[in-house]
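Something for you to look into today, if you have time. What I am after is a single protein written out in full by you. I want to see for myself how the chain folds. Could you add the entry underneath, on a fresh line?
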Amino acid sequence: MKSASPDHTSDELEKDRQYVTALARGLQILRCFNHERPELTTQEIVKLTGLPQPTVWRLCYTLSKEGFIICVGDNNRMALGLPALGLGYAALVRQNLPKVALPYMQTLTERHRVGMSLAVRDGVDMLYIQRTHGDFMYMNDPVGARRPFHLAPTGWACFAGYDSDARSEVLAALQRHDHTAAALTERQLAQAADEYAKTGFVTSIGVIHQHLNSVAVPIRSSRSATVYGLSASGLASDWPLARLQAVGAELVSLAQQLAVAAD
């Protein structure tokens, strides 16, 4: 059932008497909009959420009255309104890690011409909270963009840095999201965890894009259980595995420095 939270089953939520289903469904609609899908119709939202069309109509109407959704273009297409942007910036401002990490990421980008990503898990996605752009323009997504957890190098790094309970929770969420790909995903994540145990970093060779190779490390907050992923990515022709591993050693050292700034 698509309307459940990515980290919790429908049965778990139904037993939670404090859980407000209508609010959760409204938030689920807001999550449908992202960098790749800035505009949507109600039919597209129905498909993405699995919610009944009348429910989507009512929720979108309410969100539009509050300014969180606006009508744009033809065919009754909708987009996020400025109040949603305000919430996003309010969340980002309190994050210390992106601000502290940026100059280090810029230095690595300038020295190696790689794109750097700092991300944190949100459901079954990795959400970018800081970015610097290298030479591979196709994947130069901005802050706020998302990539699927099971494909993103930062997702693999986070999985490697999680404890056993968090790993089980993520695998269950990915299983509910797409059970057909669960077996392959679990193998890839297990391999990433093994690589991390041996080297302190994970590598992704042509996974997120055939011409893109990446290396990533987890950053575990010294004050909370939050784990972030930090990755460096470049053209596969310029960044074979051996060269990535050298950058990986730099990322391991940087992750240790940044852990004290993580919330």
